[in-house]
Amino acid sequence: MQNGSASDTPATKALATLSAFASVGARALNLTLTNIVGEKIPGGYRPNTPLEQLRRTIGRILEYAEKFRYNVIIRPRSRTATLIRLDDLDFARAERIAPHSVIVFRTSPANNQAWVAVEKDAQEDFGRRRRKGIGADATASGSTRIAGSRCPLTRLSVIVFRNLRTPARGREDPSPPLRTSYR
């Protein structure tokens, strides 16, 4: 996809995010809407939202959020993998982890966020050790603003996207990372 193409919309960015998480076993997500200062809005928390339902409604959700200046935050849930968020990565660190990532977001002009999937039975402290090893924010949670959602300063931009598993067989994808920039 080229920058500025007709299909480069908030909804297509969000759908790419959902597809990336689905590729590693996410079938439901916790959905939270917050106002511009990060406070949850009344009725804005929807736990265990089926991924397929969110795919059908994400366009309307993003339009509503844009109208009222809400953030759309997701916490992906996978039954087959542990998902680890690596936050506050500079470009060099994001590039280094990208080949091993499910998806990488640009969260500000100087920072990126990568998500990696590891075996469900990985050691309990694996996420903490991975964050420390790459130099990511040690306190990063398991949630993120969905690409295409309003951020207080800018929109999230997907800069690297890679499915780690082929949907049909569940095996590692031998192809190189697909680098896509949505600015």
Helix share bin: 25-40%
Top CATH class: Alpha Beta
Low-confidence stretches: 159-183
Strand content: 25-35%
**What is the number of helical segments per DSSP (H or I, 4+ residues)?**
4
Q: Biggest sheet: strands, sense, closure?
A: 4 strands, antiparallel
The class by helix and strand makeup works out as: alpha+beta
> End-to-end span in angstroms?
11 Å
What is the domain tally?
Answer: 1
What topology, given as strand order, has the largest sheet? 2-1-3-7
Radius of gyration: 15 Å
Assign the CATH topology.
Alpha-Beta Plaits
**Tally of strands:** 8
Mean pLDDT reading: 77
Say which CATH homologous superfamily is assigned: RepB DNA-primase, N-terminal domain
Q: Which architecture does the CATH hierarchy give at level 2?
A: 2-Layer Sandwich
Question: What is the overall silhouette?
Answer: globular
SSE succession: HEEHEEHEEHEE
